[in-house]
Design brief:
48% strand; 1% helix; mainly beta; 1 helix; 379 residues; seven-stranded antiparallel sheet; 13-stranded antiparallel sheet
Length: 379
Amino acid sequence: MADPALRESSFPLDLAANPDLVDGWLDCQVGSRISRTNPPAVYGSGPIDTLIEGWSETIGPRSWMVQVTPSPAGPWQVAEADGEQRAPADGSTLASALSSNGTTLMLMSTPENDVWTTDPADMPLDMRVGGEQVTASAIGPAAQDPFTRTVTGSWGIEPVTGQAWQHFGSAASFNVTGSSAQHIHQAVNSGRISVIDIGSTDARVRVTGSVPVAAIGPSTALTIYAIARFTDDNNYYQARLAFIPNLAITCSIRKRVAGVDDTIASVVTGLTHVPGTRYTVELDVAGSQLRARVWREGDPVPDWQTQATNTELTAGTKAGVRTIIDAGSGNTMPLTYTIDDVVVSLPQRVTVTRGVNGVVRDWPAGTEVDVWAPAIAAL
């Protein structure tokens, strides 16, 4: 469709050539709405909705020409519950550059506005990237792996990105069983990492996993991490889900800088660890804002349980999973962590048709993205 705020000084209406429009025109008055269904190509495809501000007419024996003075109707279209208009997505941007021939864009939203709809019933969805109108046919996560394959010695290929998982640890420590993935620890004080590149330093990463036993030993824990802004195994942010020996579960935000782990913020969740039960840990990294939460599978997703700000890590576009068995653990080795699902819900991966309004060009990361015709709230 054409830009709903498009402003024309005037446009012609030839009633002699279009007698089917006469009755409709005679019902019009100042303030009436007219939809131009076949505007000149320079205005883009689709109708132009206008309000009549005035007009002049020239009438002859075989002619009836009206020159309409319009103003945009779009600013007067207020949002309705369950209406066709969409709320504006203030602050949404391209998470990575979009080339002129690209048909998939990476979409980043602000923490305040959260993710865009992924419901197929909401598609197609007209969007604006910079000055270009595109139509989204699908919106989904940047990455999502349910591990429904069988692989030995690695995790194989993440199905959304088509990338091979990158591992830190011996190959024998990583398997996929057909329904879940594994991090196998042969000894205490050991860690395993699995990551993929999502092309964005900002990310929301969710990991669902379980351990088969309770933690044993003073001041030790069995831990699962969602990690983001990963540059290498010495530098990244992480949300730590810790199963501690008294069966309590803690959630903390941690940074790993130059190989040193430090806790930035932490909370006791109130959950009780049941060995073998699946729990989810989620990390959200947006600029300097870090948030984390933990919940038991099947429970409602809680509000963010702990948050902090930190500016030490600004690079790194990989995200994924880390598991650790703390030094001093009394658990019997080997011990296997089960990872059932990994989801990178931000940025979102959007499949689009390009150049709907005749504009197609390269757009850099950070370009503003919004719905094409954002709703205007009534006062």
